[in-house]
Amino acid sequence: MNYWNTTKVEVNNTFLLLIVMLSLIFTFIDISDSRNSEFAVKDIKNESIYKYNLAGFFSNKSHVSEISLLNFNNPSSSLILSNSIKTKNVPLTGNVDQMKFFYRALKTASNQKIRIAHYGDSILLGDVITEYLRECFQKRYGGNGTGLLPLAPKDNAMRRSTLHSYSDDWEFVSIFTRNPDNLPLGVNGSVSIPSTNSWVKYETTSFIKSLSSFEMMRLFYSHGNTGGFVEYTLNESVKNILPIKNNAGINEEVVSFDSRVNSLNLRFVSCQNTNFFGVSLENGNGIYVDNFPITGNSGVNLVDIPLGLLKEFDTYLNYKLIILNFGVNVGSQQGGTYTLYENKMLKVINHLKSAFPETSILIVSVADRTIKRGSQLLTDPEIPLLLTSQERIAKKGQVAFWNLFEAMGGKNSMVEWVNSGPPLAAKDYRHFTHNGGEIVAGLLYNAIVAESN
To answer: What is the pTM of this model?
Structure first.
């Protein structure tokens, strides 16, 4: 199955072009406050800052369907570009044999739930890349639902796959925030703590078929309050009560619904000081791909997730593949030498192997990154050095490696992605738009499944 088999096509629908260009605003690097939904992106070509206020943009589902207008199930009509981009199907390298845990699990996906943890930096914000990687796997191997979602994340307004809102009284702590109370972090690198009557709402969309509904909720938390409970409302009508345990370890509450659910409201009553790690929305056996963006991070801080907690999550979530998709925030402090970064990432790999001993690990390289030299926009000269460093990490860590830089077109390719119509990358020349993420996901999916055969 070749998800993305052509990238040279012509514009034949101006209206589609104008609508899809709106998706550009959802991939930015600086988030001032997700609840105010204001984002900024720097245009390095014109040396200016664009700000957008997205509050209320997703007030109903029609916005999502208008923006997507992409028939995922028919790649030949899914994305129309105004100019050529030259992509390449690049195979996995490194220790591909370590992918055996995932490939074995794929053969049993019809009988159980198999999970992929997709860790990355801000390149994954808003479910970018992950949303289509998830759809690729679910279309072929089954599974319906967006998987594990945090309760009060900072990128909720950027998501198209699941509409996510919450009250403004949550405390949110993650790898990329201060954690003065040393709160335990979940498998997604974050934890959310409610106030007296905090609430969360999840709504499905028709943007991707496999995410249009779910029939099961799994809630993960620790240190619940005696007498605390969660009131959950299905499809704006049916209300139920879910008592919370006061155990110190990871607790899982599983609720199966009698019919398909499109809207889930959760109200947390007397749950102050309870650590909530996430809600997983699921339906049936198959593949679930969890989106774990860690803003402003190079990946080295994944060792801050306690080993014991990761092992507990492994007993619940059956991760068989961990993807490490970092590079946007990696810079050399010693003129092209990445020794410190390599040593820290090797500690991350060993940390993850200790927590998930029968799980495959795949390093995805940095994408092309552009800098301005005079009037020219060129590939950052640090990128080839960083690529070599990431390949060494994979080799020393005995894990698989995939070269995204080469797959997207190599040197100076990011300029073509930004200038494409609709734009496939943001004007900071570092981050992909949702449309660009669709192409990256297809290339990555092709590389992974090619080796499974």
So the answer is: 0.83
pLDDT for 29 beyond 70: no
Classified as helix, coil or strand, 49 is strand
Using an 8 Å Cβ cutoff, are 116 and 290 in contact?
Answer: yes
In a domain, 428, yes or no: yes
Position 26, amino acid: F
What is the domain-level CATH number for residue 40? 3.40.50.1110
Per the domain annotation, does 160 fall within a domain? yes
Q: How far apart are CA 174 and CA 275, in angstroms?
A: 12
Number of structural domains found in the chain: 1
d(CA 425, CA 420): 8
> Could you tell me if residue 116 is inside a domain?
yes
Tell me the per-residue pLDDT of 159-196, one tens digit each, with 9 for 90 and over.
999 999 999 999 999 998 888 899 999 999 999 999 99
Residues 6+ apart with CB under 8 A from 104: none
**4 lies in some domain:** no
Helices (H) and strands (E) in the chain, counts: 10, 22
User: What is the per-residue pLDDT for 204?
Assistant: 95
